[in-house]
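YybH family protein
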Amino acid sequence: MTSGINKVQDVLENYKWAVYEKDAEKFLSTYADDVHIYDCWGNWEFKGISLWRDNVIEWFNGLSDDGYLLKVDFNDLTIEENNNLAFVHCAVTFDGYKEKTGEKRRQMTNRFTFGLKKVNGSWLISHEHSSLPIDMHTGKGMYT
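Structure:
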């Protein structure tokens, strides 16, 4: 897949708006075909865009079924890049709003790391890792 995105920051903006719009194709347009993802929800990992696509479609359909819009914010953002590779780490906050009323109902912050590569002049996410710190007493993820 090529997305025509020339700046790493634009990949994050695309992520943010695609989630809000629940637009799976827009969201997936910034992922490499051979993407490798470690996720903190559901499956341990996804190898390849087709498995990731199935997960994203399920996620967005679930949001629609539940009547939610998600606003995404990237906090404590660090971007390091050279001509062909980029590394991003940040805290990503997902704020869930009821679509009909605009009432904020949920909030969750995950830690994210993205590895990006340039393909045909466009930045694509080739690796993504999301995580939560674990409470050592309960073994459960800690949400902020």
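DSSP finds three helices and six strands in the chain.
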